[in-house]
Amino acid sequence: MTNNEFWSSVSAIISNGFNNEDLVKLENYAEQFINRQLLFERYTQSEQYGCAEGGRLHVIVTILAGAETPADKLTAPRGSFKKMMCV
């Protein structure tokens, strides 16, 4: 599954209203993420580690939040001091 396919799948889950089948998909994605079988390109390694340490529910919430917020909207602008300090 490509990065775009993953985020499209999550957006579809949100659009479908979280039916039972979709909730199982989210749980599966969370388990894959915690077991390092799935990585999110939009998050740094340290963000991914912290997310996994938070447990399955934290991973699911992070996935859902990531689907609703476009990439780079939550970070400082490129070239800014804050952006350069975030590693």
Task: Explain what you see.
The protein has 87 residues and is mainly alpha-helical. Helices cover 64% and strands 0% of the residues. The protein is built from five helices and no strands. The chain has helices at residues 3-16, 20-34, 45-53, 56-68, 81-85. α1 crosses α4 and α2 packs across α4. The longest helix has 15 residues, at 20-34. The radius of gyration is 14 Å and the shape is globular. Mean pLDDT is 78; it is low at 80-87.
Name the helix and strand elements from N-terminus to C-terminus, one letter apiece. HHHHH
Helix content: 55-70%
Largest sheet: none
Poorly predicted runs are 80-87
Share of β-strand residues: under 5%
Number of helices: 5
Structural class: mainly alpha
- Terminal residue distance: 27 Å
Mean pLDDT: 78
Number of strands: 0
Note the quaternary state here.
single chain
What gross morphology would you assign? globular
CA gyration radius, whole angstroms: 14 Å
